[in-house]
Amino acid sequence: MLDYEASGPTSRVYFSQRLRLHYVDWGNPGAPPLILLHGGRDHCRNWDWVASRLRHEWHIIAPDLRGHGDSQWSTDGYYNMPGYIYDLAQLVHQQQLAPATIVAHSLGGNIALRYAGIFPDNVRKLVAIEGLGPSPKVMAERGVKPIADRMTRWVELQRELAGRLPRRYASIEEAFKRMQEANRHLSPEQARHLTQHGVNQNEDGTYSWKFDNYVRVWPPYDLTQAELEELWARIACPTLLVYGKESWASNPAEDGRAAHFQNAQVVLFEKAGHWVHHDQLGAFLDTVSKFLVRP
After folding, report:
1. How far apart are alpha carbons 260 and 230 in whole angstroms?
2. In what order do the strands lie in the sheet with 239-244?
3. CA angle, 116 as apex, 216 and 131 as ends, to 5°?
4. How confident is the model over 156-178, as pLDDT tens digits?
5. Which of 207, 206, 185 lies closest to 198, judged by CA?
6. Which residues touch 251 (CB under 8 Å, ≥6 apart)?
7. What are the two backbone dihedrals, phi and then psi, of residue 183, each rounded to the nearest 5 degrees?
8. Which domains, ranges and CATH numbers included, belong to the chain?
9. Alpha carbon distance 127, 129 (integer Å)
10. Are 62 and 47 in contact, with CB atoms under 8 Å apart?
11. Residues 59, 92: contact at Cβ < 8 Å?
12. Which of 84, 130, 137, 249 is deepest in the core (most CB within 10 A)?
C-alpha cells in the first residue's frame, strides 16, 4: 500500500487575484520546499505517487491551478499565462517557499519555466515534463496569422464553450473508462485514483470533471518565441527537460530550444507518452531523485 493511502496530504487554501485556490501540503515543513505543478485539465492529486516517494526528504506542496481541481474557476472564464504565473508567485510569496525546487508537467511546466525566468533567484532546481509549449514550427505558423483572425477564432471558441455543458457520466466507473481511453499507459490503479480525485458529483447523481471547460481555450496572444527564449536564458538553476519518446511533443534537444538554457539537460524516456511521471514512474523517480540531490 502506498504511503499516501495511510497518511495523505492536508488540504489548504490561499488567495490570488480574489480567487480561492487550493493546494495540498504533504507535511515535513522543516525539509526543503518542493512544488509540484500539474498540467492542463488535471489536478494536484495526480502527483500522489511522486509525493509519496519524495515526502520524507522534501516539504511537498502541490497546488490546483485556477480553474482546475478544487481551486475556484475564473469568474470571467479567461485563463492566461500571467494569471497562472501570478498564482505561483503568490503561493511562493505567501508560504515563504523561495528558493523552491519545482517539478512540473505540461501547462505546469510552461508556468514554472516562465516563473523561473522572471524570478531566477526563487528557484533552486527545476524539472519540466514536456513544459516548453508548442514546437518552434507551430509557434511560427501561429505567428503569421493576423491578430484579427486569431481574435475572431478565440471569440468563436469562447462562444462554443459558453454553450457547452460539462460532460456528465452516469457513474465513476464510466468516467474511469474515459480516463483509461485518454492514456493507455495508465495502470487501472492509476486511472481509478486520478478519476476519483478528478470528478465532482452533480446534484442529479451523475459525475463531471472538476476543471472549467474554458481552460481548453488558449488566449489569442502570448509571448513571442523570442521573448520566451529570453526568459529561458534567464533561468539560473539546473534544469531537467523531460520528454517521452512516444509523445506528440517536439524534442527540445532536436528543435533547438534546449540551446537557450544556461544549464539544462534533456532526458528522454522509452515507452512513455506525454505523462512521463505516470507512464514510467519508477524510472522517472530514479532520474529526478538523482538530479535533485546533485550539487
Report:
1. 8
2. 10-16, 19-25, 59-63, 33-37, 100-105, 123-129, 239-244, 264-269
3. 40
4. 999 999 999 999 999 999 999 99
5. 207
6. 243, 266, 268
7. -145, 100
8. 3-134+212-293 (3.40.50.1820)
9. 7
10. yes
11. no
12. 130
